[in-house]
Amino acid sequence: MPVAISKPAMERLSQYRRYLLHERQQKRTFVFSHQLAAMMGITASLVRRDIMVTGCMGNPSKGYRIDDLLDAIAQLVDTEEPTPIILVGLGKLGSALLGFFRSRRPNLRIVAAFDTHTDKVGRVYQGTHCYPLDELPATIHAQQVKTAILCVPSEAAQEVADTLVVAGITGLLNFAPTRLYVPANVYVESIDLTTMLEKTVFFARQHDCARD
Amino acid sequence: MPVAISKPAMERLSQYRRYLLHERQQKRTFVFSHQLAAMMGITASLVRRDIMVTGCMGNPSKGYRIDDLLDAIAQLVDTEEPTPIILVGLGKLGSALLGFFRSRRPNLRIVAAFDTHTDKVGRVYQGTHCYPLDELPATIHAQQVKTAILCVPSEAAQEVADTLVVAGITGLLNFAPTRLYVPANVYVESIDLTTMLEKTVFFARQHDCARD
DNA sequence: GGGTGTGAAGCCGTTCACAGCA
DNA sequence: TGCTGTGAACGGCTTCACACCC
Description:
Low-confidence stretches of chain A: none
Number of strands of chain A: 9
Number of helices of chain A: 8
Mean pLDDT of chain A: 94
Largest sheet of chain A: 7 strands, mixed
Largest interface: A-B, 62 and 62 residues
Structural class of chain A: alpha/beta
Oligomer: homodimer
Distance between the termini of chain A: 50 Å
Strand order of the largest sheet of chain A: 5-6-4-3-7-8-9
Radius of gyration of chain A: 20 Å
Strand content of chain A: 15-25%
Helix content of chain A: 40-55%
């Protein structure tokens, strides 16, 4: 672990990259921190702080070289080879996510999908093969998979998570609205869609009241 | 706005509720703060702090009455009538979300979906009718919708968001990987799935290195 | 004794402020 | 002059610590 990166900083780096890639396509070669800040809706200091952890150096009159930034971010957050990922649970949400993640970052490849339903097993969804759950450990070992996306119903989530952890998964992106109990050496990122919607509704109402 | 609730507190209240509803189904009538804390993976003090803002009072020997808590949370975060919500963008992700949110909180009803593709308009997805985009303002006004879920491609997101805001939307749950520029009286909650996956991959690797 | 309610302290991410530099 | 790099200050959320109560 070369440098410690906080979770919010990590999220921002991922988003800087998206913007930088876009800018590079426009043949631009330099950016100022305040430009990144403006498009992210944050302060320029924060951008510079984030860039500090990448070790990238800017130039007071030109700003940061986009290629340097992209390399630095890639070196910090990516591996050399594409990272294999698996997805468990091919319900509506699961297969939508398969499609969503396909064709985003080419370095993040969903190499296999898993489901219990026998009618799904063997078929191909969004270009990804579906296997039965009991092939999980073999696939994880064979491809050295470390990250899994979990889209199974809440009731099954903990059990599947246990299987994944035993098989060697150390990172879980969890869409089931349940807390997962995992060992300390496993990272869980939960996206609780219902909670997010309730939160949006709540603040929508609050903002509505506050309007003049 | 009776009490100020921070964003993290709001998320936790939504999650307490899920657990409390589950407990009530098991015929349990009281909980201690440390029980809620254990299942959320947080400290008991934090739970008590959150409960403080609801105005609910506990009993040192019994804990909190579950019905009281549920009422207090509902009063704080819900409206009396079901809240109407619209969803824009019926791609794979959009229709998966329609299905996901249907049958979750009955008080949050997705009353209509919208898309530009003429072959989708007029059809029914997951029990929800799909309308063309130009009917957005009429529907928002007619049903007094304040919250919208945005699942359109990045390129279209800002334009659609502008339309929504003009029509009176004050809360946006955005799945497009772009920052949205909106007036200060509009709340935006963005779920950046690609960033979340990158984040998970990054910390998965870090945790993997740190294991003994 | 064990749990609640809450002032006070702590922590960590963000912002400020400014020296250094092109 | 205007931007970068960064120590110092700030602020808000979380945790500590403890009085009070059953």
